[in-house]
C-alpha cells in the first residue's frame, strides 16, 4: 500500500547520460525502440543525427550492450586526446578531408582484421592449420602492435606515424614496408599516395581472409562498428570539419570494401552535421536518420521509466493523476511539463527527476502542483546555463544577450529587440572586433532561434527550432522566449522591459582572438561571417602549423631543417603582428606565398626536391594563392592536408 499511495520514494526516471543510465539498468529496461533505433539495428540507416540530449548515445549503448544485435560490435568513442591526434594528422599531396578519411580507414581496418582473426579461431578452429590469409592477418596485427585492445589514442599514434612514414609492416602480405608504386619502384609518390597504397594492401589482405573463410554464405551477422561522442572532439574549426567529413568518407568506403561482413553506424550531433560542406555530401542523404521526438513518444518514455522504477505497469492516467498531480496552473500536468522543456529525452528526464526530488525533499508522497512549480524555476535556471555552456564556443556572449530579455514580456518585436541589442552592440564589437560588419541584431535573432532560445509566431502558434526545419524569416516580427527559459529570466506577460540605457553591460565582455571566435561561426546557421582579413590570417596560421609539423618529421639534415624552420617562424611572427593591426594582410599573404616557393626551390636545388616537406611547401603556396581568390569561414572540404 505504501508504494501505491506514496510512489515518490521509489520513483526514478534515470540518469542524465546514457552510459550511467545503462549501467543502472533503467535504460536497458525502459528503452524506447524508436524508428531511429530500429533503422540502425537492421542496417537500414548508417547515420543517426540528433540534437544534444536527443538519445543518440542511448541508441549506441543499446546496440552495443542491449543484447538485441545478434553479432559482434565495436565502439569507437574519441576523447580530446584522440581528437587532437586526428586533427593534427595530415599527408602531403591530398586534401585534409581525404587524409583524415585514411586514419579512420585504418581504425576500421584494424577492427575488422581483429574480428576476422577472432572469428576464424572461434568458428573455424577445428582445422589443424588456419588458412594462409588468416595467418597473414594475425601476423599483421602482431607486427604492428594491434593484436591486443589498447586505448584509442595509442592506436591513433601508431597508425598516424606509420601512415605518414609509410612504415606499416605488410611483409606478411608479400609487400615491403615501403609500398611499391605501379611501375615497380619503391618509395615514390606523395605521402598521401603511399598511405593509400598501404591501406589498399591491408584491406586486400582482410578481404582475402574473408574469402578463404567463406563466411558470406554462412549468414554470420556482420561486425557492427559504432562511432559516437564526436562532440567531445569538435572545435568548429576546419580541422574538426575535416575530421568528421573524413569519417563520413571512410564509412562509405567501409561499406564498399567489406560488403556484408562489416558495417558502421555514426552518431553525429545535428549542429555539427549541419555545418559540413563537402562535395560528396549528397551521397549520404539516403543514409541519414534524423531523431525527432513527438509528444506521445516523450510521454511513453516517462511512463515506461516510471513503471520500471515502481515495479508496476502504470497507465497514463495513473502517472498524470496519481503519481503526479493532474494539473498545474489549470493545465494538464503532462502538457505543462512538455511546454516548459525542449523536446528531447534528456531534458524530459531531468525535469521529471527534479519534480520528484522536490517532492521528496518536502516529504510528499506524490508529486504535487507546488512541487512542479518549484521545480520549474530551478529547471529553467539549469537550462539557461546549459544553453550558454553548450554554445560557449560558438557564441561566448550568450549570457550578455540573455540579459536583454530579463524582467520583460516573453514576446518581443523584432524592432524592440533591435533597440535593446543596440545598447550592447558597441561592447560586443570591441570584444570581437573581427565581426564589426556582421554582428547585427538580425544575425543575433537567427542565432537565438537556431539554438532554441527564441521562437516566432507562425499562424496561430509559435514555432521553435526543434519543431521546424525552416529558419526564422526576415518578415517574421513576433519573437517569443521559449517557456523553458522564462522563469530563469523572470519573463512575465505584461512586464515592461528596461530601457536601452539600463542595459549597459555591468561587466566587460571577455576579449577573444580572431581564431577562437572563428571556430564558433559554423555552429549554427546563424548567418555570422568574419571579415576577409581575419579569414586569411586564420588560414595562414593553419598553413604555418602544418608546415612546421611536416618539417619536424622530415628527413632533411638538421642544419637545413633548422634554417627552414627559422624562416617559417619569422613569417608566422609577422602574421601574429598583423592580427593585432588588421592592415596589409593580403600583401603579407602574397609575400608569404613567395617565401614558400623560394624555400621549395632552394631545397630542390640542394637535392631535396623529393622530400615530402619540399612538395608540401609548394602545395601550401598554391593553397594560399587559391584562398586569396575568396576566403570562406568555417571548415572547407578543399583544405589542403
Distance between the termini: 68 Å
Average the pLDDT over all residues and give the rounded result.
Answer: 83
- Give Rg in angstroms: 28 Å
The overall strand count is 11
Largest sheet: 5 strands, parallel
Low-confidence stretches: 178-186, 503-528, 630-641
Structural class assignment: alpha/beta
Order of strands, main sheet, comes to 2-3-4-1-5
**Gross morphology:** flat
Number of helices: 26
Amount of beta strand: 5-15%
- Helical amount: 40-55%
Describe the structure.
With 641 residues, this protein is of the alpha/beta class. It contains 26 helices and eleven strands. The protein has helices at residues 2-5, 18-24, 26-30, 35-41, 56-65, 80-88, 96-123, 132-143, 152-165, 191-213, 238-258, 270-273, 295-310, 316-323, 333-339, 345-361, 369-390, 398-402, 414-431, 441-450, 483-489, 514-518, 532-552, 558-581, 585-608, 612-628; strands at residues 47-50, 73-76, 223-227, 262-269, 288-290, 327-328, 331-332, 411-413, 454-458, 461-463, 478-481. Strands 2-3-4-1-5 form a five-stranded parallel β-sheet, with helices on both faces. A four-stranded antiparallel β-sheet has the order 8-11-9-10. Helix 2 (18-24) crosses helix 5 and helix 6 (80-88) packs parallel to helix 9. It is flat, with a radius of gyration of 28 Å. The chain starts with a helix and ends in a 13-residue tail after the last helix.
Amino acid at each position: 500500500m505504501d508504494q501505491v499511495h506514496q510512489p515518490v520514494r521509489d520513483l526514478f526516471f534515470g540518469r542524465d547520460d546514457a552510459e550511467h543510465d545503462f549501467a543502472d539498468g533503467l535504460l536497458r529496461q525502459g528503452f524506447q525502440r524508436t524508428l531511429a533505433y530500429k533503422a540502425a539495428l537492421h542496417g537500414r540507416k548508417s547515420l543517426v543525427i540528433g540534437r544534444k540530449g536527443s538519445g543518440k548515445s542511448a541508441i549506441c549503448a543499446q546496440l552495443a550492450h542491449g543484447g538485441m544485435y545478434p553479432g559482434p560490435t565495436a565502439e569507437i568513442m574519441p576523447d580530446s586526446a584522440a581528437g587532437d591526434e586526428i586533427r593534427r594528422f595530415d599527408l602531403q599531396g591530398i586534401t585534409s578531408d581525404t587524409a583524415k578519411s585514411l586514419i579512420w580507414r585504418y581504425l576500421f581496418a584494424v577492427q575488422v582484421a581483429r574480428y576476422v582473426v577472432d572469428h576464424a579461431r572461434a568458428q573455424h578452429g577445428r582445422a589443424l592449420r588456419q588458412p594462409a590469409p588468416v595467418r597473414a592477418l594475425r601476423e599483421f596485427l602482431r607486427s604492428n602492435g594491434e593484436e591486443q585492445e589498447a586505448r584509442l589514442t595509442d592506436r591513433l599514434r601508431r597508425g598516424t606515424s606509420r601512415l605518414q612514414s609509410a612504415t606499416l609492416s605488410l611483409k606478411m602480405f608479400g609487400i615491403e614496408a615501403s609500398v611499391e608504386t605501379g611501375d615497380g619502384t619503391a618509395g615514390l609518390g606523395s605521402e598521401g599516395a603511399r598511405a593509400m597504397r598501404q591501406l589498399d594492401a591491408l584491406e586486400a589482405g582482410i578481404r582475402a581472409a574473408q574469402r578463404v573463410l567463406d563466411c558470406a554464405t554462412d549468414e554470420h551477422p556482420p561486425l557492427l562498428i559504432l562511432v559516437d561522442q564526436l562532440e567531445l572532439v569538435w572545435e568548429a574549426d576546419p580541422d574538426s570539419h575535416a575530421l568528421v567529413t573524413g569519417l563520413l568518407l571512410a564509412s562509405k568506403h567501409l561499406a564498399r570494401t567489406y560488403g556484408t561482413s562489416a558495417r558502421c553506424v555514426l552518431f553525429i550531433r545535428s549542429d555539427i552535421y549541419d555545418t559540413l560542406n563537402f562535395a560528396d555530401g549528397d551521397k549520404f542523404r539516403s543514409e541519414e536518420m534524423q531523431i525527432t521526438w513527438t509528444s506521445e513518444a516523450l510521454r511513453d518514455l516517462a511512463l515506461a521509466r516510471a513503471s520500471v522504477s515502481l515495479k508496476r505497469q502504470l497507465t497514463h492516467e495513473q502517472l498524470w493523476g496519481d503519481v503526479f498531480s493532474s494539473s498545474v496552473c489549470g493545465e494538464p500536468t503532462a502538457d505543462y511539463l512538455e511546454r516548459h522543456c525542449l523536446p528531447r529525452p534528456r531534458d524530459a528526464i531531468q525535469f521529471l527527476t527534479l519534480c520528484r526530488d522536490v517532492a521528496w525533499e518536502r516529504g510528499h508522497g506524490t508529486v504535487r502542483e507546488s512541487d512542479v512549480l518549484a521545480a520549474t524555476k530551478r529547471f529553467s535556471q539549469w537550462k539557461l546555463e546549459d544553453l550558454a555552456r553548450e554554445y560557449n564556443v560558438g557564441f561566448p556572449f550568450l549570457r550578455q544577450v540573455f540579459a536583454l530579455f530579463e524582467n520583460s514580456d516573453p514576446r518581443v518585436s523584432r524592432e524592440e529587440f533591435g533597440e535593446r541589442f543596440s545598447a550592447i552592440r558597441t561592447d560586443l564589437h570591441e570584444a570581437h572586433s573581427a565581426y564589426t560588419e556582421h554582428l547585427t541584431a538580425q544575425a543575433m535573432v537567427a542565432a537565438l532561434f537556431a539554438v532554441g532560445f527564441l521562437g516566432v509566431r507562425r499562424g496561430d502558434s509559435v514555432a521553435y527550432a526543434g519543431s521546424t526545419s525552416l529558419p526564422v524569416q526576415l518578415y517574421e516580427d513576433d519573437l517569443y522566449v521559449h517557456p523553458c527559459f522564462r522563469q530563469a529570466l523572470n519573463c512575465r506577460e505584461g512586464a515592461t522591459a528596461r530601457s536601452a540605457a539600463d542595459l549597459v553591460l555591468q561587466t566587460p565582455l571577455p576579449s577573444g582572438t580572431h581564431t577562437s571566435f572563428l571556430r564558433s561561426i559554423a555552429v549554427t546557421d546563424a548567418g555570422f561571417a568574419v571579415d576577409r582579413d581575419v579569414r586569411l590570417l586564420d588560414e595562414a596560421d593553419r598553413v604555418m602549423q602544418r608546415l612546421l609539423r611536416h618539417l619536424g618529421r622530415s628527413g632533411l639534415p638538421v642544419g637545413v631543417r633548422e634554417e627552414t624552420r627559422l624562416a617559417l617562424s619569422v613569417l608566422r611572427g609577422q602574421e601574429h603582428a598583423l592580427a593585432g593591426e588588421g592592415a596589409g594582410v593580403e600583401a603579407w599573404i602574397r609575400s608569404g606565398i613567395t617565401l614558400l616557393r623560394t624555400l621549395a626551390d632552394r631545397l630542390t636545388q640542394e637535392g631535396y626536391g623529393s622530400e615530402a616537406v619540399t612538395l608540401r611547401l609548394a602545395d601550401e603556396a598554391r593553397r594560399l594563392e587559391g584562398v586569396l581568390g575568396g576566403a570562406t569561414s568555417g571548415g572547407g572540404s578543399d583544405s589542403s592536408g
